[in-house]
Amino acid sequence: MQKLILYIVSLLLLFSCGKDSSSSASGKTVFKYNQPSNITSLDPAFAKSQNNIWAVDHLYNRLVELDADLNVQGAIAKSWEISEDGLRYTFNLRDDVLFHENECFTDAGQRKVNAEDVKYSFERIISKEINSPGSWIFADRLRGHDPFEVKDPQTFVLHLKKAFRPMLGILSMHYCSIVPKEAVEKYGKEFRSKPVGTGPFKMKIWLENQNLFLTKNPDYFEEINGTKLPYLDAVKVSFIADRKTAYLELKKGELDLISGMESSFVDELLNENGELRPEHQDKLQFLKSPFLNLEYLGININTTDIKSPLRKKAFRQALNFGFDRDKMLQSMRNNVGNGADSGVTPMGLPSYDPKAVQGYKYDPEKARKLLAAAGYPNGKGLPTIEITSDHNYVDLATFISRQWEDIGIKSKIVVLESATLRNKMRKGQVSMFRGSWIADYPDAENYFSMFYSKNPPPPNYTQFTNNAFDKLYEKALLENNDDERFKLYQKMESLLIEEAPAVLLFYDQTAICAAKSIQGLSKNALNLLVLKKVKKGA
User: Most exposed residue of 184, 197, 360, 482, measured as fewest CB within 10 angstroms of its CB?
Assistant: First the structure.
């Protein structure tokens, strides 16, 4: 026990930096960032939440990964071919990718990745014994026999039972990180805290709910102009739940980066246009970019109350016209985000096209006319509408509720814990609910799946059913030409705007505040924190 305490103390000294220095007492460059939510597992099979995904991204690689513009790039796979019918994906692997040095390997402490590792990792995702939350990525998509084929040590083949255009994007998800069988079998359930990957950083120690310490992987395979990545020597992750406290630590120089804004400090940090205030510009930098997250109020189309106004299309359209999205973002979020005035596809996806898909904008007169058309002139005879939300979005719900009241729509806000709300959404027990959908992979199909009638809740929490939409959705899945597929997407968008199964609120933006000394941070619409190219200056 005494040795363990001394070891931890030495680590804390190594990873602690004075606020006027970019490196630790040992001369190592340490990057320090905060995650408000604790990591629950470092096993990529459980990389469901952002806190887990960020850590897994430092430790592992996939066959393919996404660049800052969401283009698919090779990682462990150096190249690939897709058969003309879209059923066979053949990946040619690099021969210079090594797993982190670990005692699980008998041969010199480490070994190269091969196609058997890919097969094992993918089989693990769909294993009922593992019960990975990522098993859905292959559900009903693989051929019935031997879907994962090893042709030779450097060639892996994925076989689908039907074409699915977004599959490459799905393979970039962190569930698909490549793991070694030796480590999983040696550590068993402890693999969650003893990860062995191929990523730019490797595990040092994880003090759960306190800190995660990672060190540079000296054998990492990527390089830039002959210089091996990563540039940083180490990474320290803290888990300060209070965002205001984390922000103060950033200002003091004890952290290099925080993610996400909160009302407790956003006005002090940003002006009304969402820009960094002048008094912070010498020490801090603020990065925001489109984030593949749609915020919305979902409407349960199949509400059990047959007299509910939510069953009427004109009323649902009135709700969409009845509040000012731009004013909401300005007053509630300091303009971090963009009003959802197109379809369900958020900014940042290549198929997003506000000219081709024109959605709802604030128009109180049109909202009043639609209200009358639904049988409720000036709100007469209209029952009170319930908006069910969790604690984090009460301010937005309150803003919308007050604006609806101006056109004759009365509503009340029901606040539930997040887990309770999701459970009721799943069971169809709430008529209108605050929801958000963060893309798992960079294709708008992710969002249209929310309204496909053959999908249960989740993802179809609105229980929307429309035969024309379903046919377009199924046709789009088989279309390999991007231009033609995007045209199908636009038809689906227009149909959803007409039927209005949701009140679209805003397209989110990533919001990262970092020390001025940090260089090489990339902005991306999946809100990943990629550290392999990051440098830390004095």
Answer: 482
Q: Does one domain contain both 480 and 528?
A: no
Mark out the alpha helices in 67-190 (DSSP H runs): 115-126, 167-171, 181-187
The rounded distance, in Å, linking the Cα atoms of 257 and 280 is 14
Please state the domain count of the chain: 2
| One domain, residues 505 and 525 | no
Q: Which pTM does this prediction carry?
A: 0.85
- Tell me whether residue 229 is in a domain: yes
- Is 22 within the bounds of a domain? no
Structural domain harbouring 494 = 291-509
Are the C-beta atoms of residues 460 and 440 closer than 8 Å to each other?
Answer: no
Do 342 and 352 contact (CB within 8 A), yes or no?
Answer: yes
* Pairing status of strand 284-299 against strand 227-228: unpaired
Q: Give me the helices (H) in 436-481, please.
A: 445-448, 467-478
Residues 492 and 527 in one domain: no
Of all helices (H) and strands (E), which one includes residue 364?
A: helix 364-373
Q: Are residues 141 and 214 in the same domain?
A: yes
Which tokens in the block code for residue 414? 């029901």
Is there a single domain that holds both residue 154 and residue 89? yes
What does the pLDDT profile of the chain (538 residues) look like in tens digits?
Answer: 544 444 454 455 555 544 444 454 457 899 999 999 899 999 999 998 889 999 999 999 999 999 988 889 999 999 999 998 899 999 999 999 999 999 999 876 899 999 999 999 999 999 999 999 999 999 999 999 999 999 999 999 999 999 898 999 999 999 999 999 999 999 999 999 999 999 999 999 999 999 999 999 999 999 999 999 999 999 999 999 999 999 999 999 999 999 988 888 989 999 988 899 999 999 999 999 999 999 999 999 887 788 899 999 999 999 999 999 999 999 988 899 999 999 999 998 989 999 999 999 999 999 999 999 999 999 999 999 999 999 889 999 999 999 999 999 999 999 999 889 989 999 999 999 999 998 988 899 999 999 999 999 989 999 999 999 999 999 998 887 889 999 999 999 999 999 999 999 999 999 999 999 999 998 889 999 999 999 998 7
E strand or H helix at 202: strand 201-207
Tell which residue, 424, 400, 429, has the closest CA to residue 412: 400
Distance between CA atoms of 260 and 513, rounded to whole angstroms?
A: 8
